[in-house]
Amino acid sequence: MDHKTRPVISQHIIDEATEWAIMHGVAFRQADNTARHCPFSIAPMTMEREVFQHLRQVTPLVTKLIHNVSEDHDFLQSALGDVAKADPFFGRLYSLHQQAHGDIEHRLTAARKPLLLMRTDFMDDRQHGAKVIEFNGIAAGMAPFGQRATEFHAFMKEQWPAVYRDWLEDNLSTPAENQGLEQLAFGITQAAKQIAAVFTDKTLGTPETVQYKPTFLMVVQENEDNVYDQHLLEIALQKRGLRTVRRTFEQLSTQLSTGDNKRLMLEDIGAIDVVYLRAGYQYADYYSLQRHESICCQTLSQTRLFIEQHHVAVNATFSQQLTTSKTMQMLLTKMPAQEYARWGLNLEEAKQVKSVLADMKPVNPATINWFNTQTNKQAWVLKNQGEGGGHCVFGDDISEKLQQLLPHEYDAWALMQRLYPHEREVPTIAVRDGKQTQIDDLVSEIGLFSVYFDGAAVTEMDGYAGYLIRSKPASENEGGIHSGKGILDSLVLIN
Predict the structure, then answer these.
(1) To pair with 407 at 20 to 30 A between CA atoms, which of 84, 175, 179, 374?
(2) Is 90 found in the same domain as 138?
(3) 399-414 burial string, b = 16+ CB within 10 Å, else e?
(4) Which cofactor does it need (predicted)?
């Protein structure tokens, strides 16, 4: 049967699929405290096994590189000074990093241990192969949704095999295992236990009288809707014996204190072992209506600095957030592979990392002239330092944006080779708000998760920790599940 004329899926199946999603926490919270299911595809995308294995192999190397660069504080300060002047929010992060690591005296106060929970996002370009879109080092969430999407497609295959096969590209494909939620929880638990083990019985209470549970603090945005993904991770951590608490920066500004031996203490809770920031990647996360500050967001960003001055596992540190920026991605892309030796990668490892980095160029008068007169404008995307969706400019709009920029703003932006991934050969059904839509030109982005603690891989898969697939129509620029036209997806492999 021609895929273009396939009958729509019965509403009964769509209803059961959306109920499965809600029941398994694959949802966003609404303003009235109800839940709306995440948009999802009815069947997975296909990738060649060899391509996926390469990404699995290279992602922990990327993470090792990012960790080692992020702990090279002198390099960060010298390499990122110009962009700090060009972008006010980046400048704030840079100055906070300087306060924590700028000189020998201050370095002694930054007692935090870096926990790198990272998602490296790729697109499999038709011509150039799989390339990095961006590094996500802060609020690198949705591993729980990634694993759930894989489980959902297994549910579809089991319950409605004919419908599942109808929308599958290749009936000989096999699902790619995805333990994103479990491996993230495993890695965080390892970090929490290592921090807890540092402190003596005197700090924790005697083992006979107090059963201490390592404690995980998630820093969250007030009234956000993407909470179920977060709660799924918390439940997985609770099953592993951790206590979990959630606080905003506003709450933490009055609730944190210092215990013995730089122990981080939280009011009414006690000692904290891991801090995971699901907030902090935009000015709004540090803004308080109640505070009248001469310097915007001073108090709440200083709260984050206070956390880093304690013996606690932190994701993301200021260093990690600076290192996973677009500017650092560009610097690493333009650097010869041999220079990666400075951060512990041998030449073979460096070449593997370089193989997945797409071409990038700084914004300066020469580049602007080249872009406007010599290149195919559709082959590039203009990016600023912002996290998440809505920070990219495409095609002919780039020239207009470049013309608007003032010279002192240039360093906040970079041009990147635009990636054109393979369109799915078979149409798919996207389900959004309980309604189905056929999409004929679906393309996908794959994010691979990794977990490193204090420089060592801490998952059961040598640092790798599962994946997230987000798909969108090729005609759409914004592919975020949360903030764009994206849908949740999973992955099957072909030989």
Answers:
(1) 374
(2) yes
(3) eeebeebeeeebbbbb
(4) Mg(2+)
